[in-house]
Design a protein that fits this description.
CATH architecture of the largest domain: 3-Layer(aba) Sandwich
Mean pLDDT: 84
Shape: elongated
Largest sheet: 5 strands, antiparallel
Strand content: 15-25%
Low-confidence stretches: 1-14, 159-164, 419-423
CATH superfamily of the largest domain: P-loop containing nucleotide triphosphate hydrolases
Number of strands: 16
Strand order of the largest sheet: 2-1-5-4-3
Helix content: 40-55%
CATH class of the largest domain: Alpha Beta
Radius of gyration: 34 Å
Distance between the termini: 73 Å
């Protein structure tokens, strides 16, 4: 690559106080620059103390669409669009990663002052990326490589036998450290586990961690939501059915979830919603370790570990005759009671970091952090929807944010209205106001789904409708 610029021009970088030796030294440096220029594919330009171009390489000239000789001796502002090299000469400060509009391209540039004896004698300009879109492509490429590396690491961990899904449990509070320790202790036991906690506290994450940390991790982990499947269908889903067992049955029959989980783990989510009849059938599985398909007669032995979860108070349901006491004690061999998010607020920054990283990848944008004032509101909100609500808030922000920092104004109004100061006044009115806010916020969280709201609040649908009418909350 030819070098453009007269060697004599380098003298213009020297001051009157320079000695002959100093000039020779600078000329030697110029020879080194020639070699760099001849082999560089990057766009590079050098200006003298007055801002006139003394060196420009072929790559930069081609980018500008000019003959290199046309640039030599001209002021840099006449050669390069929107340049700041003449300003760097005055400030003596490096400008790195600056966006500069050059030939209708948003380029990423670098500007470095040349100093001798603490005096600025010139400046170097370099185009790092000709178009800022190259940065985005590089970022996506790096993120893709990072994800691929992560997958290989996870596979390698499984091959080595030291894979711990417990890393997916985010939290450093005392209670969470105790629960994590319990996971490692009970993982390789075959005892049933009952995970309780409010909706959104991470019960499924714990169930998955127990399975993945156990010796059963190479076998099936089957999960089923007992509340999402009608009772008359749940039996065939869990136990399977024989050919012709009922009208509409699949020819050849079907293998049930319990059998699919043989030698693995069966996760029964929302078991508190299971019908009384189905509870008796699950109890027999726990006692006899065998299943009989719907329409069948021959029992089949199964080796399955059952993990159950619920957000309901099973003791109260037992008292109300809605849950079998014998099944409860069969399930509650190893109890995990997950704390609500409001009782472990020191974990909120960690969870925020986790979700920010997750949605940075998903949305392909980069949020750097959450400002202190916004974090204050996040930490002092009651979080009725727990971790699920926090994730919902972070994801929602990504749809509207136009900066790389999450600020107070990006948070939903219900969080900003939260006040950690204890009010003083009429107790009944304060309780009514609190109940009204709680119902309103929960309706917003669950998009107006009355069944979900009633379940989360622990009241019946009829009670919820009475309260909606009492507080004149729009229930449409």
């Amino acid at each position: 690559m030819p070098f453009y610029g007269e060697r004599i021009k380098v003298d213009s970088l020297c001051t009157k106080d320079d000695t002959i030796g100093g000039i020779d030294e600078l000329k030697l440096q110029n020879e080194v620059w020639e070699i760099i220029f001849e082999n560089a594919s990057d766009c590079i330009v050098v200006v003298d103390p007055d801002g006139y171009v003394v060196m420009i390489n072929n790559a930069y000239a081609n980018f500008l669409g000019i003959n290199p000789n046309e640039a030599i001796g001209r002021h840099v502002t006449e050669v390069i669009d929107n340049t700041r090299l003449h300003i760097v000469l005055k400030t003596g400060k490096t400008e790195m990663g600056q966006i500069q509009r050059i030939k209708n391209n948003d380029s990423v540039t670098l500007r470095i002052p040349i100093k001798k004896n603490d005096k600025v004698i010139g400046a170097i300009g370099k185009v790092i990326f000709k178009d800022v879109r190259e940065v985005e492509l590089l970022y996506r490429s790096l993120e893709s490589a990072k994800k691929e590396l992560y997958l290989y690491k996870e596979r390698f961990k499984k091959v080595k036998g030291d894979y711990y899904a417990i890393d997916n449990i985010i939290g450093k509070s005392l209670e969470m450290r105790k629960l994590k320790s319990m996971v490692t202790k009970v993982a390789n036991s075959d005892s049933t586990v009952l995970i309780t906690g409010e909706s959104g506290t991470g019960k499924e994450v714990f169930a998955n961690a127990i399975h993945e940390t156990s010796d059963r991790r190479d076998n099936n982990y089957i999960k089923i939501n007992c509340a999402a499947i009608p009772s008359n269908i749940l039996e065939s889903e869990l136990f399977g059915y024989e050919d012709g067992a009922f009208t509409g049955a699949r020819p050849g029959g079907k293998v049930g979830k319990i059998e699919l989980a043989n030698n693995g783990t069966l996760f029964l989510d929302e078991i508190g919603d299971m019908s009384f009849d189905m509870q008796a059938k699950i109890l027999r599985v726990l006692q006899d370790k065998e299943v009989v398909k719907v329409g069948g007669h021959d029992p089949k032995k199964v080796n399955v570990r059952i993990i159950a979860a619920t957000n309901q108070n099973l003791i109260k349901k037992i008292e109300d005759g809605e849950f079998r006491e014998d099944l409860y004690y069969r399930l509650n061999v190893v109890p995990f009671k997950l704390p609500p998010l409001r009782e472990r607020k020191e974990d909120i920054p960690l969870l925020c970091d986790f979700f920010v990283n997750k949605y940075n990848d998903k949305f392909g944008i980069y949020i750097e952090n959450i400002e202190d004032e916004a974090m204050y509101y996040l930490k002092n909100y009651s979080w009725p929807g727990n971790i699920r609500e926090l994730e919902n808030v972070i994801e929602r922000i990504y749809n509207f944010i136009d900066t790389n920092i999450i600020r107070k104004e990006h948070l939903p109004k219900r969080i900003l209205k939260n006040n950690s100061i204890v009010p003083v006044g009429d107790l009944k009115k304060m309780l009514d106001d609190y109940e009204k806010d709680l119902i309103t916020n929960t309706l917003e969280l669950y998009d107006g789904n009355k069944s979900s709201v009633a379940k989360v609040l622990g009241i019946s649908r009829s009670s919820l409708y009475q309260k909606l009418e009492k507080y004149q909350i729009d229930n449409h």
